[in-house]
Each structure stands twice: as structure tokens, then as C-alpha cells.
Input
Amino acid sequence: MYVRGRYCEYTRESWWRGIATTGLIVLDEIGSGMSHEFRDEALLTLLEKRKGKPLILTGNLTLDQLRTKFDERIQSRIKSGTIIDFAGRDLRNDGLESRVARVNVTEFRA
Output
């Protein structure tokens, strides 16, 4: 891999060292999709490496759903931080029909 014009080879250790030393990490959509051992172990490692450092986790799961999605080790590490629960409807759906672009495909034929 090239970074800023220089060849850089990532190893598992250098990847996690970067995770541990980066100023802020934002992980979007935790808990989405099927759970599997690799993902859970990676999340657990990330939570350990970021202990006491800025980390933002986002997702659409309720606190009860988090309890059923993750094992106690991951739950404990997530709960050790500040949790902000935004409740309400999904505003992305408001006005959806007015934002749908209608295209007549016959206009693009050669």
C-alpha cells in the first residue's frame, strides 16, 4: 500500500498500534449485520486499545438490543463510557417522496 507516495506495509500489529494512537476513532453502525466471532473479537480489541481515549460508537440498536447482541465483555467496555440515547423517529424518511429523482430513460438513448 502507498501512503503519501511512499510504500507502507501494514501488519496486524501496526494496524492495532495505529488504532491505539489515533486521536479519535468513530465506528459507525455497531451491531448491524450478523454477529460472528471475528467481528466480536475485533470490536473487543478495539475497545481495549481505545480504553481512556476518544471513541464514538454509533448504531440503531436500543440498550436492550445491545445486551442481546454482544457478550458481557463487550457490553462492559461499551458501558464504561458515556452513553447518549437519541430517541425519536428516523428523520431521513421525512419528505422521501419529494427527494426521489424520476428519470425518463428514453432521453438517454442514442
Q: What stands out?
A: The domain at 2-86 is CATH 3.40.50.300 (Rossmann fold).
